[in-house]
Every structure is written in C-alpha cells, then in structure tokens.
Write a structure and sequence with these properties.
Elements: E1 2-9, E2 22-29, E3 37-45, H1 48-53, E4 67-74, E5 84-87, E6 94-97, E7 111-112, H2 130-143, E8 150-154, H3 161-170, E9 174-179, H4 182-190, E10 196-199, H5 205-212, E11 217-222, H6 226-233, E12 236-244, H7 263-268, E13 272-275, H8 285-297, E14 305-309, H9 314-322, E15 329-333
Parallel strand pairs: 8-9, 8-11, 9-10, 11-12, 12-13, 14-15
Antiparallel strand pairs: 1-2, 3-4, 3-6, 3-15, 4-5, 5-7
Helix pairs in contact: 2-3, 2-8
Bound molecules: NADP nicotinamide-adenine-dinucleotide phosphate.
NADP nicotinamide-adenine-dinucleotide phosphate (NAP) binds near residues 131, 276, 321 and 330.
C-alpha cells in the first residue's frame, strides 16, 4: 500500500489565511486501476488563485493546486514511469490520475513536461508553465503592445508581472513596474532592465507616473485591481488597452472593495479593457512555453524563484506569497 499526505481545508479563510485553516492528513491510496498512473510530487506551486477561489469549494477538500511530479507506476501507456508531469493534483505528495482534468473547467489535464533543454523542471510551474503563459498571451494578445509605447504592470516583481515587463521590453516598449519593496524595485531596474520601478507602499501612482510617464500610458497589465488600477487607468492615452489578469489587492478583503469610477476616461480616451483566464489559450499552451524558453536561451528573459523547502511548509509558503515575501515565482520543494 502507498501512503500519501495531503492538506485539507478545515476552516474558511477569513482575511489572511492562517496555518490553522488547513490540516495535514495521511492516508493509504488504493491500487492502480487500468488507465491510471501514480506520481510523486517533486515541486508544488503556491498561487494567488488558491486564495481567490477557495470560498467556492467545500471544507474538507484537498487544497487545490498544481505540481511537478514524477511518474512512479503506470497502467496508462500515455504516461510512462520516469516521465515528469504537470498536474492539478492539489496539495498532495502522491497522487493517482487517470490522465483527465481534475476540475470542472476541463482545462487542466495533466501533461508531460516538454524538453526544457537542461533548465530546471520546477520552471514548469513558473516561466515555462501557467504564469509564463499568462504573461505571454495576456500581454501580447490583449494589450498588443507596439514598439515605443509605454506599458505599466502592477505586481511587477511576481511570477507573472516580472515576465510581462520583460516581454514588453522585448517588444520595444518602455516599461514601468509597481511592486511592494525597494529590493523588488532594484531587481526590476538593475537585473530585468525595467525603465522605472516604484514601491507602491512609498510613492503614489500620481507621483510615479508624473515622473515616469508624463505622456501617458498605452498599455496596462493589471495584476492588483483596486484604487491603484483606477489611478493608472485615469492616466491612459487614447485607444489604451488594459489586460485584467487579477486583483490581488482584494483577495483577502472581507467587504466588496470600492475604487474611483472610470467611465469618463473610458469614453473620452476610448479605452479597451478585457479580463482573461490563461486557460483561454490551452490549445496554444506549448507555443507560449517554447517562446519563453527561446527567450531564456537567448538571454532576453530572466526568471527567479523563491523556494520553500518541505511539503509540510506549504501553508507558510502560501501565506508568505500572499503577503509579498516572494520575488519571482513562489514554489515549494517537496
Ligand atoms: N487571469 C489568469 O489566468 C491568471 C493567471 C495567473 C495569475 N493571475 C493573477 O495574476 C496576479 C499575479 O499572480 P502571480 O502568480 O504572479 O503572483 P505573484 O505576483 O508572484 O505573488 C503575489 C504578489 O502579489 C502582491 N500583493 C499582495 N497583496 C497585494 C496588495 N494588497 N496590493 C498589491 N500587490 C499585492 C505581492 O507583491 P508586492 O510585494 O508587490 O505587494 C505578492 O508577491 C494575481 O492577481 C493572480 O490572481 C491570473
């Protein structure tokens, strides 16, 4: 018999999640049936959507999430022992899968990791996986940035934001990032070559954009929502484009957040704003991964991971990421 450990929810998150909202349980797994495979988690992801979606699911459920796992037994010819797979198996050390999607969306079928040409497989949870594709498709498809334009990104030092800014630079844009610490802003400017980066905890959007974008903003990649986003959108140029990726400033909120109304700039500047889920591009998944891989190999795209060691520390890694302790992608080494 094979044993697995998993985190289940025992209390609804109220405001910031607490370790006591989750419980670690151990149990035996049944034998594999025809068509199934068994895999062992190597790397686990912690992502903001886990906080945003948690209220929709019943208590007692395994915490949702994706992982990089090694196949250790298989009765499914498409998934062979020794291969590495990305799967939405939840916060669980050993999982059984039949190769089908695990959620109702149907967009999260396990897949064998493509050849990363020597790069670490943990990147399948970051730049060469869901966050990388979020940046790639969200920016290029919805904002359609052109050379010489000014692009603003919030959550700029995180998994998605740090890539958005660099892809905009690759496209020849001027890039302004907002992030939550001086250290993050230094990294964005010195290592990732953002044109400007501002610590939103110290500088207002008005001050920052007066200095860095006196001629206005053409594209805005919104990771945070709230008043920060309203302030940025009010400074957009005619025919500006806004990709709404997330609203992390409100994920822990207990009341529905309010922000300055934006109908006036939308009309007068003829702005276009579109929300998206990266699953929209599930049919082009490898295109995004391979583009980002090529840019890494060419030295044009840099990545960074904040690694927490130990499956038992999943809740700490999750809470730390939500409070901004990560730079780049937050992952857990099991
Ligand atoms: N639409 C999609 O398909 C899709 C896919 C992936 C991610 N997303 C969204 O993209 C955004 C970024 O995700 P990620 O995976 O790249 O996470 P991340 O940026 O790596 O980590 C979350 C970051 O959010 C920032 N943050 C926390 N509270 C904040 C607040 N009140 N105001 C502003 N920033 C705050 C923190 O950085 P600071 O130090 O800067 O505060 C923290 O490091 C999230 O909104 C997420 O939901 C959407």
């Amino acid at each position: 018999m094979v044993k697995t450990k998993r985190f289940v929810t025992v209390k609804r998150f109220e405001g910031e999640p607490k370790p006591s909202d989750l419980k670690l349980v151990e149990e035996e797994l049944p034998p594999l049936k025809e068509g199934e495979f068994l895999c062992k988690a190597l790397w686990m992801s912690v992502d903001p959507y886990m906080r945003a979606y948690a209220p929709r699911f019943p208590l007692g459920m395994t915490m949702m999430g994706s992982q990089v796992a090694e196949i250790i037994d298989s009765k499914n010819p498409e998934f062979k022992v020794g291969q590495h797979v990305v799967g939405h198996f939840g916060w669980q050390t050993i999982s059984i899968s039949d190769g089908n999607a695990t959620t109702l969306t149907g967009h999260d079928k396990p897949y064998i990791i493509p050849d990363f040409e020597g790069l670490p497989i943990s990147l399948a949870l970051g730049v060469l996986g869901m966050p990388g594709n979020t940046a790639y498709f969200g920016l290029l498809e919805l904002c359609q940035p052109k050379a010489g334009e000014t692009v603003v990104v919030t959550g700029a030092a995180g998994a998605v934001g740090s890539l958005v800014g660099q892809i905009a630079r690759i496209r020849g844009c001027r890039v302004i990032g907002f992030a939550g610490s001086d250290e993050k802003c230094r990294w964005l400017k010195e290592d990732l070559k953002f044109d400007s980066a501002f610590n939103y905890k110290k500088v207002t959007v008005a001050q920052a954009l007066e200095e860095a974008a006196p001629d206005g903003v053409d594209c805005y990649f919104d990771n945070v929502g709230g008043e920060t986003s309203s302030e940025i959108i009010r400074r957009m140029n005619t025919f500006g484009r806004i990709a709404v990726c997330g609203s992390i400033s409100s994920y822990n909120a207990t009341n529905i957040p309010t922000a300055t109304a934006l109908q006036m700039p939308f009309v007068s500047k003829q702005l276009k704003m579109e929300g998206f889920l990266v699953s929209r591009w599930v049919g082009r998944w490898n295109e995004g991964i391979l583009h980002n891989l090529k840019w890494i190999k060419e030295g044009k795209l840099k990545y960074r991971e904040t690694i927490t060691e130990g499956f038992e520390r999943m809740p700490d890694a999750f809470i730390s990421m939500l409070s901004g302790k990560n730079i780049g992608k937050a992952v857990v080494k099991v």
